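Why do we care about 3D structure at all? Because function follows from shape, and shape follows, mostly, from sequence. That is the central idea of this module. The next example makes it concrete: a single protein chain, its amino acid sequence, and then its structure expressed as tokens.
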Amino acid sequence: MALFGRFSRKPDPVEEAARARIRGWVEAALGTDVTLTISEIDCADPTCPGLETIILVMREGEATQAVKLRKSMIEATEADIREAVKFL
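And the structure:
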């Protein structure tokens, strides 16, 4: 068990606040009956802007749907999120 402690990091309060904002915006757009995973990745593709936000939307009995936002979680706005999830 001690092995895993070395690799864990303290949650960044700014990142956690951004994740909570995004969660609220997605739930406002889609309803609260969804399960969400919100993460940020550093895209290695040279055409990517760098950090991207990935939102996985899971509904019981349905396939998981993914939305990619070409911005970091901190840069994402409510308008960005509403636009990204409008077809889900």
